[in-house]
Design brief:
alpha/beta, seven-stranded parallel sheet
């Protein structure tokens, strides 16, 4: 009997963090965020983003839909889950070894959005798998409009996740937090999501909950609310 080719399941946690897709949505401006994998965008930028919600009396947006996700898959007995901050590490030597098919659950196809560099980045690592001859498939979350994505630079099967059981057996798993896209207040959900996975886990880089105090921000809003709202209005006019 022919052995099934090595299959890699990749899950970006931003799959579970819905953002408005319609620019006419009144909340859309609050999600008009720049995204770069730098220390500032992983941590400090989120305080101002959180304040924009709190100043309007809105709850912070949360990750959702991750509970029970792992029950959709069958894993080989020897399967291992690797995890890291950036999806660029989905092409780590330990992860990519022998992979013939990549199945990605993500809000982005990660198959190239700009001129390619020599090393894989968070937005083009799928191109590097294509160069190895791997088959590529992306499942977008139900909240994501695929038409907003540019064409991949390599052949990728794209579809909105229909839910339910995913066919076949996976021999390896990689999960990334994508902290430039997913806020620190969602970290408890991320680590619970990791814990739910019924597999041995290997960290490819140190990954800890990011410091974030919702209560401190609420106190700041209460103490400085008028001045903060005034600055928000000035910033809106400048934009």
């Amino acid at each position: 009997m022919k052995r099934e080719g090595m299959r890699l399941l990749v899950v970006d946690f931003d799959y579970f963090f819905p953002v408005p897709q319609d620019p006419r949505d009144p909340l859309a401006p609050l999600f008009a965020w720049a995204h770069f994998e730098t220390p500032y965008y992983l941590l400090e930028a989120w305080e101002e983003r959180a304040l924009a919600f709190l100043l309007r009396g809105l709850s912070l947006p949360e990750a959702r839909g991750w509970e029970g996700f792992w029950g959709r898959f069958a894993f080989a007995r020897e399967a291992v889950l690797y995890y890291a901050e950036s999806n660029a590490l989905a092409f780590h030597p330990e992860v990519r070894r022998g992979v013939e098919e990549v199945v990605l659950f993500d809000a982005h196809h990660d198959a190239g959005y700009r001129p390619l560099g020599e090393e894989p980045a968070c937005d083009d690592w799928m191109v590097f798998y294509h160069r190895l001859g791997a088959r590529l498939r992306v499942y977008y979350p139900p909240w994501r409009d695929p038409s907003l994505e540019p064409e991949p630079k390599v052949p990728v099967a794209l579809e909105v996740d229909p839910g339910g059981r995913v066919e076949g057996v996976f021999h390896r798993v990689f999960v990334c937090r994508s902290g430039a896209w997913v806020p620190p207040w969602a970290d408890p959900g991320f680590f619970a999501f990791l814990e739910e996975a019924p597999l041995p886990k290997v960290a490819l880089e140190a990954l800890l909950p990011r410091p974030f105090s919702l209560e401190a921000l609420k106190r700041r809003v209460a103490l400085e609310g008028f001045g903060l709202r005034f600055m928000e209005r000035l910033k809106g006019r400048a934009g």
